[in-house]
Amino acid sequence: MSFNIALSGIQAINEQLNSISNNIANAGTYGYKAQRANFSSMYAGSQPTGAQIGSTTQNIALTGGVLNTGRSMDASIDGRGFFISKTSSGQEVYSRVGIFTKDGSDFLVDSAGRRVQGAKLTPGVAAPGPKGDILVPTTTLAAKASTAIDFAANLSADWKAPVGTFPAAPTAATPPDPSTYNMSKTTVAFDTQGVAHTVTQYFARTGDASLDVTVHTLVDGAPALTGASTTLKFDSSGKLDTTTATNAITFAAPPAANGAITVDYTGTTFQAGEATTSTNVADGYTTGQYVGVELGSDGKVIAKYSNGEQQAVGQILIATMSNEDALTPVNDTSWSANGDVGTITESNPGESVAGGLAIATLEGSNVDITSELVGLMGSQRNYQANSKVITTENQMLQSLMQAL
Fold first, then answer.
1. Chain segment 24-51, per-residue pLDDT in tens
2. Strands 260-264 and 148-154
3. What CA–CA distance (Å, rounded) separates 246 from 394?
4. Who contacts 349 (Cβ-Cβ below 8 Å, separation ≥6)?
5. Domain finish residue from 282, 305, 325
6. Are 239 and 116 contained in the same domain?
7. What is the distance between the alpha carbons of residues 343 and 146, in angstroms, rounded to a whole number?
């Protein structure tokens, strides 16, 4: 009996050594969760018959260290939760390994080639789409005509009225004389075909003591079709009269379908000192080619284009469980759900109980090498002790046989 008991101990220790060696081997594996072999005793009725490994558990809740990678498609979860992926057979798996890339079919996939699950985002549409595979569009980004120019500046109250008269019909070949205005600012805007146009605003104080500033607007050096001239009015404290805070212009040059561009002067002041511009930007853009994809800290998948535009095309979801320790291992860094995990909640990163994302980082293994080496030495001693039991029993049997 003691021979079998010692043999069962050796077999159990061998299984424990498998777990320890697997932990040590995966000390550098991203998202790896250390295993632990749990011993349990065996009985035949009331008689002990040895030991066995009753279960093997992973310390899923304990996070590993965060490692900087510098790669914009890497992400670690700061807190609870798992990335969601779907295998080719349709099974959903959960992982803490945030190594993502775009596959040959333009879908976002994880390091195992499984399609990452999230919501589709459509530019201009507030509501996200249903949960599913995230497709990264690599087609040409169509041009978008400019519809608004945001402009904010301090127009100097120290200006004197220009001595010259602003020309009625300037051209690109004969631009306005500097004596006819106090300041000019140029903005690049786009028409419906994505062609860039220069929108130049010339600011001129209407009188040395006046609180009004006239703005002459030229498009590609010629007066705008409409809104070529407007007047900004200020009160005695230099604040802009809101009734004069916008100006609608249209291009005189084709295509005529471009429509109006609204220049918004909100935030513009009329104070003494240097004239400074804080905002001068138009919306719209020219045609762009897909150049890459990256992740945002909010979990958005952002497609980048050659025209400098970036568009959120997907939203990665984070899954949390009320009993994550009940997850079933698919491999050492991925798990599947079963009925014991409780309620599964899928949220955007940082929402509800889901952890936020740290971009360009990865979660390392949670293996404690020191503890594993201590466990390894303990297993070695236990193995030797059980081997000694077998050796002793063998010697006793030999002595018995010789005595017979």
1. 999 999 999 999 988 888 888 778 777 8
2. parallel
3. 101
4. 77, 81, 297, 298, 299, 316, 318, 355, 356, 357
5. 282
6. no
7. 47
